[in-house]
Write a structure and sequence with these properties.
The complex is a heterodimer of chains A (481) and B (436). Chain A is α+β, with helices and mostly antiparallel strands and 481 residues long. Helix content of chain A is 32%, strand content 19%. Classes of the chains: A alpha+beta (481), B alpha+beta (436).
Chain lengths: 481, 436
């Protein structure tokens, strides 16, 4: 597929010369998201500044049968915001304004390119924040969060992005400009907002998002508990949940990760521990106090080596900095890795950890773990060195076996990263043909000409050709999971 | 084959068993939908039987309406046609429940009460308490997007449905979502199904997120002498660090219907947590109420179960608007009813901007549509809200739209979805928005 000079001129007419990237070097910036395994540069990148420009781009691309690939900040981990079959990439980075803060209705309307953390920064002095907190929140966009239905550590208590999206302004693949949902919390008709969130840009382009704002809780308490083994830590997680306590966040980090973090950002995690749980409680102060005692007791019952409560906001921030930037320090440990996002029922955590260790041993690989334990959402990083012959193959094999094990336990292929190009082939492990067919038909109702982010989300056989090829490195430094 | 053909009834009887195919006139009259009497009522006993019934309907072009407990069967336009009512009450097995996972997979016909009984020994709950009570079926509550006081903390079916099994119009058994609390595999099909009113498929199984029953809970009745005082209090409550788990607002009529002591406006607030946290939050709540001239009293927990009576009128309107405008719409509905001399009771969802307005005995019912519903709806829609007629006699539905106006582009997408999955219009034809 090649964009004709006429199409490029028309694009330039819509977004202006400053809003169009066509140079070879410029396009290289957009050839992959944070999953650099998959590469495919678009033929042009349009950077619209308004909904009208987005709508005009979609109309043009429909008329010319040109694929559209939406992109937020490009921090995805699934080969989503890259162009396997070329076409036009639409980047929302210049649409990054807060359109309205409405505290009486506890909501905000923002442009899709607004950085997640900026919204919380803009609302905190009024006592509010935006609850979805993917680890990438200081750079990822709210439009991207909505498109991938992003999670984050605190979604254990607060829910994932879809639970916080009240409305969307969207240009569908069929070229319609629609306002779905809004400040009112319900509306007659199908929940099209719910369908659009997590659709990974395959149904349309989001041009504005109305999100819930959450009141800042009265108190917060962050507890770090260390254990000699990841099995003990996993048993502690299951016991906490079993006791009917749902913390705000319940995160697991294993020995490999702790070491990397301490050598990197230095968060003050105990060196030498086999695993650490980062447990956060928030809410009314009396509730926090009432819940922290049984949590600490449960950790001790499961042979915790040390239980430490953050004594200051600075200490708390440092503990979280370690967690949120964990993946960024992985370069210290391994030249390459594969990252997974599978989910198991939370009671199966101890069991899957045993299987994971067995799989790692069988393939003579290190599998590092830093994940959302309270949800059962794993993020195993399968470490390998592509200079060692056969290691990539063993890593891939381990990845397949682990995914299979999670699904056998009743889990899911992806908990929060999404499908993209990376996992589109794995969906058939979780869904029957009829289920996938239903989704494919749903897609067609929004995107009748199949121009929106082709090849992503559902199993298909895009005319890939040389469009995407494995890169040398699997994940760059500065990745967030 | 005509719907009255004996061979057809034989085929239906073969699928579900003769005893589960109802054809006697009294039973059929009981299952009428907006005055349309079906030719038969079938009660399949399994998802597979539902699939075979729909396969037969597709082959014979039979139109069907799904019925759960029958509580919300008044919702929707009168069906364009009706051959068969599919009753899900025999689909009542709790399939899979691992307390440690706080997830349960249940058949669509399982009632809220039955599920609650199942979960109680493990001190867990499905946080859905819509008006109409525990006899409602899980499938019906989801298909109608019904919600109650627990919405305040836990949301609605939209937030609690993790996975769904349904039968498409052509009989294909289909699954969407996951059985774990977190999954983003493909489109969120469960969201599409919540509130779809049986127009895209027949729900047969739901995988639901559960919540622990907190160790202690207490409820308060906060009475206010005026809507203005209640409005100011509610704004302060929502802007505070208090974390109630349930909330409801009733007007004088609503309180009387629910058997509670009358007052101008009453907010019912429930707090659940550790005992000491309930205690301290309760004190803060009472202080906040007093600061807004409110009278705080402890309320028996059983009072929550009586609220449905406030929304049980022969005509029930559902206003959904910006949450901050809740009290304004309560007042607007009351004055509109007073102007027509219609009895009114209000049950509303604080924090969510949803007001259920029951209209009782009217001297001139014919005026309700054009003189109450239409102008009230116009005002609500002008502010981006909606007014749905949740329940009304069929003749009243004829005098005003059930769903109100739907944006043209949204209707276009909705139509494409409906046409894609039910091209022959067999699933509740005409019932949904835009007459789909």
């Amino acid at each position: 597929m090649t964009l004709t000079p006429q199409i490029l001129r028309a694009l330039e007419g819509i977004v202006g010369p400053a809003g169009l990237v066509v140079s070879r070097e410029g396009l290289l910036t957009y050839e992959c998201d944070m999953h650099t395994f998959y590469k495919g540069a678009p033929e042009a990148v349009a950077l619209p500044v308004s909904t009208e420009q987005v709508a005009a781009i979609v109309r043009l691309c429909r008329r010319e049968h040109v694929p559209i690939v939406p992109r937020g900040s490009g921090t995805g981990l699934i080969g989503g915001a890259m162009a396997p079959v070329g076409g036009v990439m639409v980047s929302t980075t210049r649409m990054n304004r807060i359109l309205e803060l409405d505290f009486p209705n506890r909501c905000a309307t923002v442009q899709p390119g607004l950085i997640n953390l900026w919204l919380s920064q803009a609302t905190r002095e009024h006592g509010y924040f935006f609850a979805p907190d993917p680890s990438s929140q200081m750079v990822s966009s709210i439009g991207g969060n909505a498109s991938t239905n992003a999670g984050g550590p605190h979604c254990l208590k607060y829910g994932i992005t879809v639970n916080h999206v009240l409305g969307l302004e969207v240009v569908t693949g069929a070229g319609e400009l629609v306002r779905l949902g809004g400040k009112a919390h319900e509306r007659p008709g199908y929940d099209l907002t719910g369908v659009m969130v997590g659709a990974e840009g395959t149904l349309g382009l989001v041009t504005a998002v109305t999100v819930r704002l959450t009141h800042v809780p009265e108190g917060v308490k962050t507890i770090l508990a260390s254990f000699s083994t990841i099995e003990d830590a996993s048993e502690a997680v299951s016991a906490i949940i079993r006791a009917g306590i749902i913390p705000a966040a319940l995160e697991m980090l294993d020995e490999v990760v702790i070491r990397a973090i301490e050598e990197g950002v230095g968060a003050g995690y105990p060196k030498g521990a086999g695993a650490v749980l980062l447990i956060e409680l928030d809410g009314p102060a009396a509730e926090i106090e009432a819940q922290s005692a049984p949590i600490e007791a449960t950790c001790r019952d499961h042979l915790a080596l040390e239980i430490r409560v953050a004594q200051s906001e600075a200490e708390r921030a440092l503990l979280w900095k370690g967690r949120k930037e964990a993946a960024g320090v992985f370069g210290r440990l391994t030249p390459n890795w594969l990252l997974q996002d599978a989910v198991v029922p939370r009671s199966k955590l101890p069991q899957i950890m045993k299987e994971l260790l067995a799989i790692a041993a069988r393939h003579r690989l290190v599998i590092a773990n830093v994940f959302h334990a309270g949800d059962g959402n794993l993020h195993p990083l399968i470490c390998y060195d592509d200079r060692v012959p056969g290691e990539l193959e063993r890593a891939k094999q381990a990845n397949e076996e682990l995914l299979g094990a999670c699904l056998r336990l009743g889990g899911s292929v992806t908990g929060e990263h999404g499908v993209g190009l990376d996992k589109s082939g794995s969906l058939s492990m979780q869904f029957a043909a009829a289920d996938l067919n239903f989704m494919a038909r749903l897609r067609r109702t929004f995107d009748p000409d199949s121009i929106m982010n082709p090849g992503k989300l559902l199993p298909s056989h895009p005319a890939c050709g040389e469009g995407f090829r494995p890169a040398v490195r699997a994940l760059p430094a500065g990745t967030w999971i | 084959m005509a719907v009255g053909a004996p061979a057809l009834h034989e085929a239906l009887g073969d699928i579900a068993g003769r005893e589960h195919l109802l054809r006697d006139p009294a039973a059929l009259a009981d299952h009428a939908v907006d005055g349309l009497t079906p030719a038969a009522v079938i009660r399949p006993g399994s998802a597979d039987e539902v699939s075979r019934v729909l396969g037969l309907c597709a082959a014979e072009r039979l139109a069907l309406v799904v019925r759960g407990s029958g509580t919300a069967l008044a919702l929707g336009n009168p069906p364009r046609r009706l051959d068969l009512v599919l009753d899900t009450s025999r689909l009542r097995t709790v399939r899979d429940y691992v307390p440690e996972d706080m997830v349960a997979t249940v058949d669509a016909g399982v009632t809220l009460d039955a599920l609650a009984t199942h979960l109680a020994p493990h001190r867990q709950m499905l946080a859905l308490d819509p008006p109409g009570g525990g006899s409602r079926s899980v499938g019906g509550v989801l298909a109608t997007h019904a919600s109650g006081s627990f919405r305040f903390r836990y949301g609605t079916g939209r937030d609690l449905l993790l996975g769904v099994r349904f039968v498409q119009a052509d009989g294909t058994l289909t699954w969407g979502g996951a059985k774990v609390v977190k999954s983003v595999t493909g489109y969120d099909v469960p969201k599409l199904m919540v509130g779809s009113l049986g127009t895209l498929g027949v729900l047969v199984e739901a995988t639901l997120r559960l919540h622990p029953v907190p160790p202690a809970s207490r409820s308060w009745r906060l009475g206010f002498g005026s809507a203005a005082a209640a409005r100011a209090f509610l704004a302060a409550l929502l802007d505070s660090t208090l974390q109630p788990d349930r909330a409801a607002l009733l007007d004088d009529g609503g309180l009387r219907r629910a058997g509670l002591a009358p007052d101008a406006v009453v907010l019912l607030i429930g707090v659940s947590s550790a005992p000491e946290a309930v205690e301290s939050q309760g004190q803060a709540l009472e202080r906040l109420a007093r600061a807004h001239q409110g009278r705080a009293e402890i309320l028996a927990d059983s009072a929550w179960r009586s609220l449905g009576a406030a929304a049980a009128g022969p005509v029930l309107l559902r206003v959904a608007a910006e949450p901050s405008r809740l009290l304004d719409w309560v007042t607007a509905a009351q004055s509109a009813a007073a102007r027509l001399g219609v009895g009114v009771s209000v049950l509303a969802q604080p924090g969510h901007g949803v007001v259920q307005v029951s209209l009782w005995a009217a001297s001139d019912p014919a005026r309700i549509g054009p003189e109450l519903i239409v102008p009230l709806r116009r005002a609500v829609e002008a502010e981006g809200g909606s007014l749905v007629v949740e329940r009304a006699p069929t003749e009243l539905k004829g005098s005003c739209e059930v769903w109100g106006s739907i944006d043209r582009e949204i209707l276009a997408i909705t139509t494409r979805i409906k046409m894609e999955f039910d091209p022959d219009g067999l699933l509740a034809p005409g019932r949904f928005v835009g007459g789909l």
